[in-house]
Amino acid sequence: MARVYLYDTTLRDGTQRRGLSLSLEDxxxxxxxxxxxxxxxxxGGWPASNPKDTAFFERTRGQFQTAQVAAFGSTRRKxxxxxxxxxxxxxxxxxxxxxxxxxxxxxxQVEQILETDVTENLRMVEESVRFxxxxxxxxxxxxxxxxxxxxxxxxxxxxxxxAAEAGGASWLVLCDxxxxxLPIDIRNGVEAAKTVSRLPLGIHAHNDAGxxxxxxxxxxxxxxxxxxxxxxxxxxxxGNANLCTVWPxxxxxxxxxxxxxxxxxxxxxxSRTVSEIANLAADDGAPYVGENAFxxxxxVHAGAVRKHPEAYEHIDPAQVGQTRRILVSELSGRSNxxxxxxxxxxxxxxQALVEQVKQLEAxxxxxxxxxxxxxxxxxxxxxxxxxxxxxxxxxxxxxxxxTSICEATVRILVGGARFVEVGEGAGxxxxxxxxxxKALTQVYPQVRDLHLTDYKVRVLNGxxxxxxxxxxxxxxxxxxRVIQTVGVSRNILVASWQALVDAIDFLLWSEEAPxxxxxxxxxxx
Amino acid sequence: MARVYLYDTTLRDGTQRRGLSLSLEDxxxxxxxxxxxxxxxxxGGWPASNPKDTAFFERTRGQFQTAQVAAFGSTRRKxxxxxxxxxxxxxxxxxxxxxxxxxxxxxxQVEQILETDVTENLRMVEESVRFxxxxxxxxxxxxxxxxxxxxxxxxxxxxxxxAAEAGGASWLVLCDxxxxxLPIDIRNGVEAAKTVSRLPLGIHAHNDAGxxxxxxxxxxxxxxxxxxxxxxxxxxxxGNANLCTVWPxxxxxxxxxxxxxxxxxxxxxxSRTVSEIANLAADDGAPYVGENAFxxxxxVHAGAVRKHPEAYEHIDPAQVGQTRRILVSELSGRSNxxxxxxxxxxxxxxQALVEQVKQLEAxxxxxxxxxxxxxxxxxxxxxxxxxxxxxxxxxxxxxxxxTSICEATVRILVGGARFVEVGEGAGxxxxxxxxxxKALTQVYPQVRDLHLTDYKVRVLNGxxxxxxxxxxxxxxxxxxRVIQTVGVSRNILVASWQALVDAIDFLLWSEEAPxxxxxxxxxxx
Lengths: 525, 525
Hints:
In chain A, 40% of the residues lie in helices and 20% in strands. In chain A, strand 3 (68-74), helix 3 and strand 4 (98-104) form a beta-alpha-beta unit. Chain A has 3 domains: 5-278, TIM Barrel (Alpha-Beta Barrel); 295-363, no CATH class; 390-524, Double Stranded RNA Binding Domain, CATH 3.30.160. Chain A has helices at residues 24-36, 53-60, 86-93, 107-114, 118-134, 146-152, 154-167, 183-196, 212-221, 243-253, 267-278, 299-307, 334-341, 347-363, 371-381, 428-440, 492-512, 515-524, and strands at 5-8, 41-45, 68-74, 98-104, 138-144, 171-176, 201-205, 226-229, 295-296, 325-326, 390-400, 404-414, 417-424, 450-459, 470-478, 481-489. With 525 residues, chain A is of the alpha/beta class. In chain A, the strands form 4 sheets. In chain A, strands 1-2-3-4-5-6-7-8 form an 8-stranded parallel beta barrel, surrounded by 10 helices. The first copy, chain A, has a 3-stranded antiparallel sheet with strand order 11-12-13. A 3-stranded antiparallel sheet of chain A has the order 14-15-16. Chain A is built from 18 helices and 16 strands. Chains A and B meet through helix 4, helix 9, helix 10, strand 9 and helix 12 of A and helix 4, helix 9, helix 10, strand 9 and helix 12 of B. Strand 11 (390-400) of chain A pairs antiparallel with strand 11 (390-400) of chain B. Chains A, B: InterPro entries: 2-isopropylmalate_synth_dimer, AIPM/Hcit_synth_CS, Aldolase_TIM, Citramal_synthase, LeuA/HCS_post-cat, LeuA_allosteric_dom_sf, PYR_CT.
């Protein structure tokens, strides 16, 4: 089976999407996932344009099993010697195994944008590639604007490819930089490239005409063996080719080997995790991984799917870590709950839980990422969770003039005792968290070791603006165990409070019986 | 120039999308738009499955200039006489000029889902088509599962087409019902259909493999002359072929005539209006019509677009009613700022601004979606923005016991006067917003017409949990103008406060001089 190499540029081209910016920690977390899923190349960033990317290359050096980390950069500037080019030199300093250099493959771009002549551009390409290759770096050459350039002046576009090959490039990647090409343009361009070079070819497609996936597949059908793309299709303007679509298409529809094929069954998780890290809403309509991808609404469809799933499904949803959803059906969600709680609940209790979850989801709760809140809800319904403490009231006060002061007071009852404590914080939620801890650690010292490690806020129904409901999600850790909880309210402090209380309750409940540690962990798996 | 007929099924297949339901008034409004844009066919609904659709056909009878309204229905049930079929009779009662009948073109579907034999299915197709045609209805035959059926048993799929033709169908529409086909499958299927029939062919593609647009274009390239699709690609599961992408591709990339071509320049409005009516968030990444479709973030791109827009744009944004957006971010540097402020600032000031933006972004600000805050920053640095008011202090108090009470007080100075006001709200930000408005409208009545329309919170460095900094982004509208502002603080109320104040200041500043309306709008373009 022929192999197609997957080249992920989520961390570089992906971040060109409007509204997407990633911290160093975000990038490291995504890169780890990409390696785990068997991406062949991870483009880490463009050191010349973004100095903080240097840290990324340092932190990932030698860390990955499968993936090679590539630095991105351009050919040398016009009219200088190649070793005077600060950007190329900065790539060498990173000690990366692979660099992806982009150069112009279009006469229009060379003359009008670079404002140099076509011969100098050929020198820029060849000399830049050679400079890195001679210093031991494997070079992938991205021929920018190749397809537009080829249409306007085919000989020159091909001459640029030859210059990169002469410099010692290992790959020639043909770019539809403006994203306006049709599959036929892609085929013509790839076939022409094969007439001038025997180097392996890659495709870099953008989605401005809604064809990035199709164009990537067409290039592969025409002989390319590398696809550059991003998770969820993030990227400049309308985005890059979506690897969450390209990858399963290559493997299941076209019979290629690509990535770590056995991880495709968790493709949905890859997509969702990256969108969570990017703090962008997931695209419900996305092929394979979208919330709707296997959601059947039409009565005819739903009926048929019950008999024979393949009647209206092009693949088995489990192949990408999805589940079938039959909409407008009281059964939706049931099987998931059954899966987790079959041993705890009887049929009637499961049904009651389905109803409760439905109502809470309609109110804005979401339990996919809040297993601990889900588990608590089930255990509370079985009266397994005692009232460890009662909260009489809390009060938060923020005063802002030349400085700001945040104070929170809580009144908590445990047994017959009453604890009134005050906390200060950088913001109101912080103050509330401090006050709770001060009160509760007096009775439950284990609360001291509960650390909040992530906190997210999502505004529901944004159109209600500052009066809208918000969902707060909190991730806590306790001795390496993860506790994820959720709260919803029109008051952000109340929503945060609910999620905090759930985290503490879950900790106390799971600590009560040692066996629950493992149980709790498994229910989250 | 050859014509491709556009067949819109937003009102039928579109509503199979999860979360999409349309009232009769919604449908009428969308149909009016579709006619205005020159769609050739509007599929109004499936009367047999949805009795309220009858009213739609009554209300639209004879109403449209271009579009023909089509009723959707299936071939007769197995084992009955055709004139006993209630569903077919209900189509006749509608007195529609066109009916679209779907029938199975796959042996698997006939035997396993319909549970009948292949010969009976051929009779069902032929008799049902003939029944309507003999009563004066033009019939478009949708060959359901045609491509899957053709792959498994080509002769039978083609026999179904012949049966429809024998019955008197005017069109044969080949359906990739499960959406899993590749362009090559589509080409093979269309070419095979041409060998058995000279009727005009149509394509109905779904997007489960991310290829609905490509497959539609491939079918047209192979000879189909009708494309069925929906506005914004709404539809069952991953949706149908998106007409907002297919249409401009057909006209501008492939040279066909389709729809009312002069209305393409308002394509973005069509897309946005339909998503407003459907009450679904617009897809920012959508080709041609998405908010990001002509948004340039990379510094290299922005610099080049400033010289020659076509450097990174596959079409002129005005062709689809769009405007170019140059985003300001840490990735962009000088060129993006130059693009906006070239006429206002000298080189030294631009450089200072670049440094300031970099520092603010390091602190967590993000300006790419907050043009108004960006503009204010520039104008403030030029001392163009007076202190319209001073905020002495604000105080927010939240008490939560059996209920929650949120109150905010503000002390504001305008000239010599001092305004102390209190606001109540569902949450603390809401209360603060109310208090500010109460105080300021006494001096600046225009603040009353400033409406907050969206509010987002992003927790920065989530790992600092409840002590982390947050970025608040607010979108406001003032008489159809959009004002987008941002605030950052470790205290969510302070961050919200900053964004609120910026929105108000921007409004007051741009209202001061009438010329600034246009300027402000342009700087956001």
